[in-house]
């Protein structure tokens, strides 16, 4: 009887609702697309290739710009893109975890994390209004992903269990004392998330105003005026790269903080945090020695974040890896 009832139900289902499911697969698809986009940005950075629309925007002086300052302008642009790629890929990892684990259980806080993080990530594209460069490829990707993301959120909302309001984010999953190894671990990881969010916000604001910090200009051995002389479009293009990195960093930082704050300690959470931090810090820090940009003041915040991350992962390992319960077989 049960098999017949299931067959009747399958016959009554419509194609698109069945294909879309409860919406989690759409959100997972967005996470996978973000990881692929991050990988593509890393590929461009590793091969030192400018996108066709970047070359067209720079104009006939593109080759001259690439060869100026012993190639440091090009290296500087790709160091931003490498960091951007790592941050985007890290965000995609967190989105996949949120869709596969807490959202599968109908936990409302995970839905709100995706909403808030998504708002930050997608809206950062509008920073182009501050620097005047419209990236058509970035705009197209945003226009394609945003409806998928929105539809995934709409369909998963109906699957949430219990209270669905935003106040669910105010309820921490950690009930123990902070003055313990587990508490230290969670506090350290949340501090990393806060640091990423603040750093990303600062980078976005910088991209819309000054664009460069003093250490950047020292590395380039050029002034902003000299950069503008090479091409009036060069600084807006660099600002665009920086804004993209800042947006990805704020989105990832907020998601990381809330996953640690609201997420129940588990092996899967520890594992996705390990992957997220490895991808993010390896790209953000590792690209600097490759291009010779090793200024201590510039790298100090990233190394401080890495130290907190390693401490947090070490201290939280035990709490997130409880002993496995033995399986009792019925006789």
TrEMBL record:
Keywords: Membrane, Transmembrane, Transmembrane helix
Ranges annotated as spanning the membrane: 26-46, 81-98, 110-131, 137-158, 187-213, 243-262, 269-291, 297-317
Protein name in UniProt: Uncharacterized protein
Organism expressing this protein natively: Hymenobacter properus
């Amino acid at each position: 009887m049960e098999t017949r009832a299931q067959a009747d139900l399958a016959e009554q289902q419509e194609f698109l609702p069945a294909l879309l499911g409860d919406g989690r697969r759409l959100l997972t698809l967005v996470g996978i697309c973000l990881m692929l986009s991050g990988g593509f940005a890393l590929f461009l950075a590793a091969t030192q290739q400018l996108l066709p629309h970047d070359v067209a925007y720079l104009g006939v002086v593109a080759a001259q710009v690439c060869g100026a300052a012993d190639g440091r302008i090009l290296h500087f642009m790709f160091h931003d893109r490498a960091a951007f790629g790592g941050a985007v890929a890290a965000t995609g990892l967190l989105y996949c975890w949120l869709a596969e684990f807490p959202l599968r259980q109908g936990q409302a806080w995970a839905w709100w994390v995706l909403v808030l993080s998504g708002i930050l990530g997608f809206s950062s594209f509008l920073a182009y209004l501050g620097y005047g460069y419209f990236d058509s490829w970035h705009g197209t990707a945003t226009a394609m992903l945003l409806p998928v993301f929105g539809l995934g959120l709409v369909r998963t909302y109906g699957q949430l269990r219990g209270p669905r309001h935003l106040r669910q984010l105010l309820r921490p999953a950690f009930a123990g004392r902070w003055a313990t190894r587990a508490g230290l671990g969670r506090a350290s990881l949340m501090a990393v998330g806060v640091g990423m969010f603040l750093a990303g916000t600062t980078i976005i604001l910088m991209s819309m105003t000054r664009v460069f910090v003093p250490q950047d200009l020292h590395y380039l051995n050029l002034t902003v005026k000299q950069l503008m002389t090479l091409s009036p479009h060069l600084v807006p293009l660099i600002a665009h790269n920086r804004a993209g990195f800042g947006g990805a960093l704020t989105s990832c930082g907020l998601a990381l903080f809330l996953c640690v704050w609201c997420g129940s300690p588990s092996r899967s959470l520890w594992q996705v945090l390990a992957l997220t931090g490895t991808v993010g810090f390896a790209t953000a820090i590792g690209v600097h020695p490759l291009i010779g940009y090793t200024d201590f003041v510039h790298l100090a915040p990233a190394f401080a974040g890495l130290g907190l991350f390693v401490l947090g992962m070490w201290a939280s390992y035990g709490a997130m890896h409880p002993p496995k319960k033995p399986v009792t077989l019925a006789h």
